[in-house]
Amino acid sequence: MRISLERVGCGFGGQLPLFEELSHDFFPGHKYALTGPSGSGKSTLLSIIAGWMKPTSGTVAIEGITRISWVFQNPHGVGPRTALDHVALPLLAQGHRRVDAEARALALMDSVDLTSVAGRRFRQLSGGEAQRLMLARAIAAAPQLLLVDEPTAQLDPRTGASVNSALQAISANGAIIIVATHDPATRDACTDVLDLGNIGK
Questions:
Q1: 175 strand-pairing partners
Q2: Which of 45, 57, 90, 118 could form a disulfide with 140 if both were Cys (CB 3.0 to 4.6 A apart)?
Q3: Is 90 found in the same domain as 37?
Q4: Which of helix, strand or coil describes residue 186?
Q5: How would residue 201 be classed by pLDDT, with cut points 50, 70 and 90?
Q6: pTM to 2 decimals?
Q7: CA angle 171, 69, 196 (to 5 degrees)
């Protein structure tokens, strides 16, 4: 598996490009931090890598990746369903029995400090809880590529550390993880850093 960016650039409506001439390779088992000031194009680059946007220049080659999960900065769930349901669903879709899916879902929720809210409805969760829930659900889907946008923005340092540990565990299983972040602790927990603030304009 590999993702290769070759001289990729992106801009909007005649404005100065967010970035250009960006070449980088992403490999399994690595956790990449996308850093840079607000407006430098971190979320835009995630969209380009996911195939949701086309770059204005350059090429993106994705080899051997069919399962992609994305954890957005603003989490979206089904209000009436429980937190546990959200994480168990991708496991049920993979063919696990419900009892096994729920046991695995609870273990994933524990890894991001969410065991205590397993029976709570999504609409009752705090912003930080909902963000961590979406991360647990994404991990349950066993992605080959996991894109994460500001996962610790709403979290205290202790809870943020649990999120970084969960990301480390899935990268150790051979996934490619790309995290857009302003958080120095998340950046330092990554194996590689790509600073969009230093990409040629």
A1: none
A2: 90
A3: no
A4: helix
A5: very low
A6: 0.87
A7: 70
